[in-house]
Automatic annotation (TrEMBL):
This is Large-conductance mechanosensitive channel. It is a multi-pass membrane protein. The keyword Transmembrane helix applies. GO terms for molecular function: mechanosensitive monoatomic ion channel activity.
Length: 121
């Protein structure tokens, strides 16, 4: 059982997945900082001042605080956009190799002709 666990944990795709999850968590903190420290102050300051809030998380309407949700939506859109461009760049940098199809075998007619010729002998 321990051998099975070791074999599972050290498969290449499991290790790749673990690295991707850790990288994703680190990437999320960078995007959170980008939104909170750059985008919100630069782009949303006029809207926040008009709404009477200092931070996007303080936005509310009739007791419903929608600022955190709005911040999460902005984070999601930015992460999605950046990942889209990263994937497109990776696809361009490392194009998939197109495998040539295996040579097809003889057609049915060729096989039947060969069988006929063998039967004649």
């Amino acid at each position: 059982m321990l051998k099975d666990l070791k074999a599972f944990l050290f498969k290449r795709n499991v290790i790749d997945l673990a690295v991707a999850v850790i990288f994703g968590a680190a990437f999320k903190s960078i995007i959170d900082s980008l939104v909170a420290d750059l985008i919100t102050p630069l782009l949303l300051t006029p809207a926040l001042k008009a709404a009477g809030a200092d931070k996007i998380s303080e936005l509310s309407w009739n007791g419903v605080t929608y600022g955190n949700f709005l911040s999460a939506v902005i984070n999601f859109l930015i992460i999605g956009t950046i990942l889209f461009f990263i994937v497109k760049a990776a696809e361009k940098a490392f194009p998939k190799k197109v495998e040539e199809p295996a040579p097809s075998g003889p057609t049915q007619e060729e096989l039947l002709t060969e069988i006929r010729d063998l039967l004649k002998k």
